[in-house]
Design goal:
Layout (H helix, E strand, L loop, with lengths): L1 H29 L17 E2 L5 H4 L29 E16 L4 E19 L2 E20 L3 H7 L2 E23 L2 E22 L7 E25 L3 E10 L2 E2 L1 E11 L5 E10 L4 E2 L2 E10 L3 E11 L13 E3 L1 E11 L14 E15 L2 E15 L6 E12 L7 E16 L8
Antiparallel strand pairs: 1-4, 2-3, 2-20, 3-4, 4-5, 5-6, 6-7, 7-8, 7-10, 8-13, 9-12, 10-11, 13-14, 14-16, 15-17, 16-17, 17-18, 18-19, 19-20
């Protein structure tokens, strides 16, 4: 009787949390003016690519390919799902709050955003296998800037003239993962992925001094979707009494997006009427992304500390993306280096709470897939975070900070400084346990 009530309570709690999170996600998606992120560089290609992972990964510089942990869901490598108790169920959901400051040779701006980040549920399939499904962002678009025409001849002819460029949207990743231990110390995993989303890019021509001219609104809306798969493996081996080494690798197949592109141009009369100059919908069959190869390793001292490294490589140089007229934008090889650590003073301390906290830190350096002229856009940052234990088992609140910089003010580019905050709640429970006494 006790076990049945425990199962019912766990199911009810997970259902309520999932329902609440999905409701917030839906409300957030309904706000057309809210930007999920803010970056001048999201004007190009598919926008800013999400580093992947939850606050657990992000606090350690984003590492996870070569990490195995029994306490949290590690979605960086599907092969890591087997690192768990065979009766454990996990739910992880999170949000992010991002602060951006952009500076060029002539202007500067600041922007803040808040949005839901991920929802992941994982549970066992059999004694040596596990399963997970969830959703997280893959890329995001968010920018809004206005420039004034400085050509005196045009100002004399048309009056004050402004150009406004703005965009929003993004691509989400819905995934279904499974993992199994096939040999001693050797685990494999596979992940089915469905990418979907909408990218909006708009450009307005605004006349403010002379009412006889009509302002123009133009832009394109890209509705995209794609199916692909990711595979992973991990090998873990103990050495000494308390230490272990884990090696991991992942490979994600290339994908070609389908969907449609809507191109439009509208003229706005001074009296408020709108005339349609162009409205064209055509199939979108030229967007694509390359395969991804990743390697990782970690060394752990049981219940005490972990250090790890990750490397990710994607060759975008021969893959078509959204063109940007008037800007020498091209794609190139993307590579990411990550390093991180975790330290736990005493996980089982019953006197001092701070000794049970998991402390994390890390570093990353990214050569992005974007190239403006001859300049590749790079990013680097420091991360730190922690998981604060809540009640019993492995329940906790994860916090991760990412303090970084992207781009440069040289060659008429933009330098972005940012502080990103990720908050995650990890819920853990034991289901289907047989009690000796009811």
């Amino acid at each position: 009787m006790q076990s049945i009530m425990q199962i019912k309570n766990s199911l009810r709690n997970l259902f309520l949390v999932t329902l609440l999170t999905l409701s917030v996600l839906q409300l957030s998606a309904q706000s057309e003016d809210a930007l999920e992120s803010y970056s001048s560089y999201s004007l190009f290609g598919l926008g800013n690519l999400n580093g992947g992972g939850t606050a657990y990964n992000k606090g350690m510089g984003g590492i996870g390919i070569g990490v195995r942990d029994t306490r949290f869901i590690n979605i960086a490598n599907p092969a890591s799902l087997t690192a768990r108790d065979t009766l454990s169920f996990y739910l992880d959901f999170g949000a992010n709050q991002n602060n951006y400051y952009s500076k060029s040779a002539t202007t500067h701006s600041a922007f803040n955003t808040f949005n839901m980040h991920n929802l992941v549920l994982s549970f066992p399939l059999y004694k040596k296998s596990a399963f997970a499904f969830g959703i997280e962002p893959f890329s995001s678009v968010g920018y809004n800037f206005t420039t004034r025409e400085n050509n005196p001849d045009l100002i004399l002819e048309y009056g004050d003239l402004y150009y406004n460029k703005y965009g929003n949207g993004g691509i989400s990743k819905l995934f279904l993962s499974a993992s199994a231990i096939i040999f001693r110390n050797f685990s494999i995993g596979a992940e089915g992925i469905f990418f979907f989303g909408t990218l909006n890019r708009n450009s307005d021509l605004l006349f403010t001094s002379e009412n006889q001219y009509r302002s123009l609104s133009s832009g394109r809306q890209y509705v995209v979707r794609a199916l692909t798969a990711k595979f992973g493996l991990q090998y873990s081996r103990k050495f000494g009494k308390e230490h272990s080494l884990t090696l991991g690798g992942t490979w994600r197949a290339a994908q070609k997006f389908s969907g449609n592109t809507t191109s439009f141009v509208y003229a706005h009369n001074p009296v408020g009427a709108v005339d349609t100059i162009l409205h064209q919908v055509r199939d979108n069959n030229y967007l694509q992304t390359p395969s991804q190869l990743g390697f990782g390793l970690s060394i752990r001292k049981k219940e005490k500390w972990l250090i790890g490294l990750d490397y990710i490589r994607e060759d975008w140089s021969n893959h078509a993306l959204i063109p940007t007229p008037g800007v020498p934008f091209s794609t190139t090889l993307r590579s990411v280096f990550k390093a991180g650590f975790e330290y736990i003073p005493n996980r089982y301390d019953i006197r001092y709470y701070h000794k049970r906290v998991s402390y994390r830190g890390g570093f990353y350096y990214e050569n992005s897939y974007m190239k403006i002229g001859d300049e590749q856009i790079n990013a680097m940052g420091l991360t730190f975070g922690a998981t604060l234990p809540i009640l019993r088992l492995h329940n906790g609140m994860g916090i991760a900070f990412d303090i970084g910089r992207r781009g440069s003010v040289k060659n008429d580019l933009v330098r972005e400084s940012y502080i990103l905050l990720n908050l995650n709640f990890s819920l853990h429970d034991i289901w289907f346990m047989k009690f000796k006494y009811d």
